[in-house]
Amino acid sequence: MHGRRVYGVNKKLWEKLTPGSVILEAGNAVKFKTGSWRAFRPKWVEENCIHCLFCWMYCPDMSVNVKDGKMTGFNYDYCKGCGICALECPGKKGNNAIVMEEEGK
Amino acid sequence: MARIVAVTGNEAGAEALRQVNPDVCAAYPITPATDLMQRFAGFVSNGNVDTELVLVESEHSAMSACIGAAAAGGRVATATSSQGLALMWEMLYIAAGDRLPIVMPVVNRALSAPLNIHGDHSDSMGARDSGWIQIYSENAQEAYDNIIQAFRIAEHMDIRLPAMVCLDGFIISHSIERVEYLEDEKVKIFAGPFKQLYPLLDLEHPKSYGPLILPDLYHEYKRAQHEVMTKVKNVVLDVAADFEKMSGRKYGLFESYRLDDADIAIVILNSAAGTAKDVIDQFRDKGIKAGLLKPRLFRPFPYEEVASALKTAKAICVMDRVDSFGAYGPLFTEICNATLHLDKRPLMMNKIYGLGGRDFMPEHAEQVLNELNEILKTGKIKTIKEYIGVRE
Predict the structure, then answer these.
(1) What are the two backbone dihedrals, phi and then psi, of residue B319, each rounded to the nearest 5 degrees?
(2) Which DSSP symbol is given to B111?
């Protein structure tokens, strides 16, 4: 039929959508990279980090990488640059371990 | 045995909800629907139902809580009127877009300003594009029957859409009429156990409601929503057939009253149809072929069936108890849309009547039928849209 785009077994795309736009796949936000929204980028200053993991706890997304109980840096695919990690970071002896830098600089 | 009782429309509505026994009701009081939910709250307090009644701070919250409860996987109902429905407005679209089968009696009342608490259809007609199924009821019996059927229609696995059951404020909600109640057990069997679809509380299968859908898919979701609406008509008829088996009371997409060979016809919703039918009889006695069509299912609107029912009529007056200022009344627009495709199009006029609870009297119907009869002879309509029953 003219103009009919077939997806799968003779069903149009809109016929295959879940009713109510419900998403049935748990954790599929992983597929939606939101890092491009960022205007400021958190920069990790490793020497000032005491690995308290406050940044990991406070991050509203999943943008703090942790391995074996230690902070290892940021996942910039999801970090929107909200700056909560930098605000909460106690640093070491007054020196912040997370600083916000303007993107594109 | 079925019980024959003398009750108000609100009482009958509350009884229907009691018998269906929803899991959750979230409601906020507003005249004239207050009394319906107040009576239902009594059933909750007395342990007559298992319903969790959520008392909220506004109708916006009431509909929001209903949406949450329905998404969680519960059978959900609420009720409202007028400003309450208006305050729910943005949530109505979400309930429909999320495909949540919430059932809501709407006790029709005028919208402010000026402030008025009495019956007209400006509230539910304003929500006609929200994606809800809309069913209109002439009297307390129809309201009761329609509320019970609405659960089956809304919750049908092919449908899963919210449904409003409309009845006229005060005229029906607060007047005592003879109503036949069904047995509790029969209603329970008829409504059946609630079937869940994608319940949020199924923790083994986590899921998300209300995602952001941008231009790449929004259009397709709306196309799918439209498709579901096209299936409602048949479900309404199937449910009505089952209901007739149980109750002996027959329902369709609309009521045709002496329409089969009618030359002139009135189209009118809800309680005023009762008054108009009496006058139709008087005209029939005089040998004038007059008939009436009372829509029941307004959304989705059964265009083909309505057109077919009106096909013999040469002049039709559609009566709206609501105005669309600067435009024709919403019922008139739909009937014109339906009759447009008939081989012989009838002459059509629109009367606005009964706003803010102004009584619709037999003489109003008489005036309209006389005018239609005149149009039949002259073939001319003086004014397409006109207010009737206006004080001068």
Answers:
(1) -110, 125
(2) P
CB-based contact (8 Å) between B157 and chain A?
A: no
Question: pLDDT tens, B162-218?
Answer: 999 999 999 999 999 999 999 999 999 999 999 999 999 999 999 999 999 999 999
Identify all chain B residues contacting A23, using CB atoms and an 8 Å cutoff: 207-208, 211
Domain that holds residue B372: 254-387
In this structure, what are the phi and psi dihedrals at residue A55, rounded to the nearest 5 degrees? -60, -45
Residues 246-275 of B with CB under 8 A from A: none
**Exposed, middle or buried: residue B151 (CB in 10 Å: 0-12, 13-18, 19+)?**
buried
Query: Pick from B229, B247, B265: which residue ends a domain?
Result: B247
H or E segment to which residue A71 belongs: strand A70-74
Domain definitions of chain A by residue range: 32-102
What is the ipTM metric for this complex?
Answer: 0.88
Residue B317, CA atoms < 13 Å, CB-side half-sphere? 32
CA-angle at B89, arms to B83 and B90, nearest 5°: 145
Which of the listed CATH numbers 3.30.360.10, 1.10.3720.10, 3.30.70.20, 3.30.428.10 matches domain A32-102? Answer: 3.30.70.20
Write down the pTM of the prediction: 0.92
SS3 (DSSP) at A42: strand
Given B205, B210, B224, which is nearest A17 (Cβ)?
Answer: B224
Q: What is the CATH number of the domain that holds B126?
A: 3.40.50.970
Hunting for tokens 């679209």 — which residue is that?
B93
Q: Coil, helix or strand for B60? A: helix
Q: Indicate if B126 and B267 belong to the same structural domain.
A: no
> How confident is the model over B313-322, as pLDDT tens digits?
999 999 999 9
The verdict on B201 touching A (C-beta cutoff 8 Å) is no
Alpha carbon B3 to its chain centroid, in Å, reads 25
Report which of B322, B263, B302, B305 is spatially closest to residue B123, judged by C-alpha positions.
B322
Instruction: Count interface pairs A-B at CB distance under 8 A.
Output: 50
The answer to whether B98 contacts A13, with C-beta atoms less than 8 Å apart, is: no
What CATH number corresponds to the domain at position B379?
3.40.50.920
Distance of CA B31 to the CA centre of its chain: 18
Tokens at residue B297, please? 């299912």
Give the gap in angstroms from C-alpha A32 to the nearest C-alpha of chain B: 11
- B355 touches B120 (CB < 8 A): yes
